[in-house]
């Protein structure tokens, strides 16, 4: 087992990893930018190294600075958390060359799944259902026109280097092709330095349902059931739950089998997520694979009663997993509490938290790095807390979440708490009747 893990991240996930390391008897090293010198991850780690100024590119995204921190502290493994360098194949490669274990998959697995065309090709070969499409790069506008005609409108253009919504264009009519192909390419080039585009049939009003998987170094891949993540705004998830209200035993078995196939196709090592689009007729399609621990992992932890960070560290150390799948034993939900103003287009609201009281009681969990007096720096993402509730049924879970949201006091900044209170009261939401288009028509005020 590792003796010392360096956490190449900040905020709640850095704290989350430190907690599990402590419970496993592993020493911890925090790294931090000057903007984070008063952060709890710095305080609770056994050692802390300042790695640079606030700008991410000069601190949390700087591979040389992080490797320098590894060098001076003698850490034998790195946990990347999510975001920053978590899905950077070059970073995983540097770790390898350096002889420090990157807690996650190999550089090859990261780069294969990072390129969305390669990911889709891999899944087609493995027999995982994917959205019908171009099956490779679009050569030019004339080629795009032919593909669209073959697939049938509407179609969606996506960046092969993308993911998470950037550079996507939905095409409803032939006359839009030239213009939207050009826009998609330019946006992809500007965002990812790669203008490769592919085309798929556009699935209307799908649900986003993802499967958590774990693979070990001995060829076992299992699934830990699904999370429903359809409540998103501009590709930012705001709320997740498990089980999905849309799920039934037959669909879970089919999707679970497909998720395991996807993991086995690349001999996956680590925790990962297989994202699916699911249409109203319960057809499901592989969309992307995330090769990291995700923000919403606590939802799965609560429904299956296992520590996913511990699983990650164990498989990275070469310990085999049990080989069996896990199924939800209860219902769990996560509300993302962001420092954003839900009444004003979710505008970021950094600043000093003047008072903070987090909800408590049975079945209530709050993962956060903030406290009264803490100043949220403007340089990083706006997630300040994750409120996770669990209960025997979805109905009970909603009631518990409402109670917990009512107890949550955050003063001095704007937060997404009012949004979640309204969401919990929505009749369609309460029925479980929603899809990825839900927030397009959601009104906070009236
Ligand atoms: C799609 C789609 C419909 N059809 N692909 C959005 C994020 C990126 N990962 C892929 N996305 C979508 N891809 C096809 N072929 C609809 C979306 C989509 C979406 C997906 C998941 C969650 C929220 C979404 C919101 C808008 C569009």
Automatic annotation (TrEMBL):
One of its GO terms (molecular function) is ATP binding. InterPro entries: ACC_Biotin_Carboxylase (IPR051602), Acetyl_CoA_COase_biotin_COase (IPR004549), ATP-grasp (IPR011761), BC-like_N (IPR005481), Biotin_carboxylation_dom (IPR011764), Biotin_COase_C (IPR005482), CPAse_ATP-bd (IPR005479), PreATP-grasp_dom_sf (IPR016185). It catalyses: N(6)-biotinyl-L-lysyl-[protein] + hydrogencarbonate + ATP = N(6)-carboxybiotinyl-L-lysyl-[protein] + ADP + phosphate + H(+). Residues 120-317 form the ATP-grasp domain. Residues 1-444 form the Biotin carboxylation domain. Pathway: Lipid metabolism; malonyl-CoA biosynthesis; malonyl-CoA from acetyl-CoA: step 1/1. One of its GO terms (biological process) is fatty acid biosynthetic process. This protein is a component of the acetyl coenzyme A carboxylase complex; first, biotin carboxylase catalyzes the carboxylation of the carrier protein and then the transcarboxylase transfers the carboxyl group to form malonyl-CoA. Acetyl-CoA carboxylase is a heterohexamer of biotin carboxyl carrier protein, biotin carboxylase and the two subunits of carboxyl transferase in a 2:2 complex. This is Biotin carboxylase. It comes from Candidatus Opimibacter skivensis. The lineage of its organism: Bacteria, Pseudomonadati, Bacteroidota, Saprospiria, Saprospirales. The gene is accC.
């Amino acid at each position: 087992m590792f003796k010392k893990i360096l956490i190449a991240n900040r905020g709640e996930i850095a704290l989350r990893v430190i907690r599990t390391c402590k419970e496993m008897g592993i020493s911890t090293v925090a790294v931090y930018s000057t903007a984070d010198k008063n952060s709890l991850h710095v305080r609770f780690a056994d050692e802390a190294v300042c790695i640079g100024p606030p700008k991410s590119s000069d601190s949390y995204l700087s591979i040389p600075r992080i490797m320098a921190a590894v060098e001076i502290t003698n850490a034998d493994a790195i946990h990347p958390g999510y975001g920053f360098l978590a899905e950077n194949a070059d970073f995983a490669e540097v770790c390898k060359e350096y002889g420090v274990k990157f807690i996650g998959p190999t550089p090859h697995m990261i780069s294969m799944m990072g390129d969305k065309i390669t990911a889709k090709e891999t899944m087609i070969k493995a027999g995982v259902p994917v959205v019908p499409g171009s099956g490779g790069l679009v050569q030019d506008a004339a080629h795009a026109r032919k593909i669209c005609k073959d697939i049938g409108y509407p179609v969606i253009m996506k960046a092969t280097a993308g993911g998470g919504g950037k550079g996507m264009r939905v095409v409803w009519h032939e006359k839009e092709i030239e213009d939207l192909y050009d826009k998609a390419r330019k946006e992809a080039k500007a965002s990812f330095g790669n203008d490769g585009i592919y085309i798929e049939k556009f699935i209307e009003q799908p649900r986003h349902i993802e499967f958590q998987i774990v693979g070990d170094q001995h060829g076992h891949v299992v699934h830990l059931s699904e999370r429903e993540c359809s409540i998103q705004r501009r590709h930012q998830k705001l709320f997740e739950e498990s089980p999905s209200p849309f799920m039934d035993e037959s669909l879970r078995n089919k999707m679970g089998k497909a998720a395991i196939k996807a993991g086995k196709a690349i001999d996956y090592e680590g925790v990962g997520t297989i994202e699916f689009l699911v249409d109203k007729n319960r057809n499901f399609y592989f969309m992307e694979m995330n090769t990291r621990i995700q923000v919403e992992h606590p939802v799965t932890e609560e429904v299956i009663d296992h520590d996913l960070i511990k699983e990650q560290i164990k498989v990275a150390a070469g310990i085999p997993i049990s080989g069996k799948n896990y199924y939800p034993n209860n219902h769990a939900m996560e509300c993302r509490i962001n420092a954003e103003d839900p009444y004003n287009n979710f505008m970021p609201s950094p600043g000093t938290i003047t008072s903070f009281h987090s909800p408590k009681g049975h079945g209530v969990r709050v993962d956060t790095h903030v406290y009264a007096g803490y100043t949220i720096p403007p340089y990083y993402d706006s997630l300040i807390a994750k409120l996770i509730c669990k209960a025997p049924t979805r109905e009970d879970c909603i009631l518990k979440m409402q109670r917990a949201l009512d107890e949550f006091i955050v003063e001095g900044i704007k937060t997404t708490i009012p949004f979640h209170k309204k969401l919990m009261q929505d009749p369609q939401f309460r029925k479980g009747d929603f899809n990825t288009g839900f927030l397009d028509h959601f009104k906070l005020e009236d």
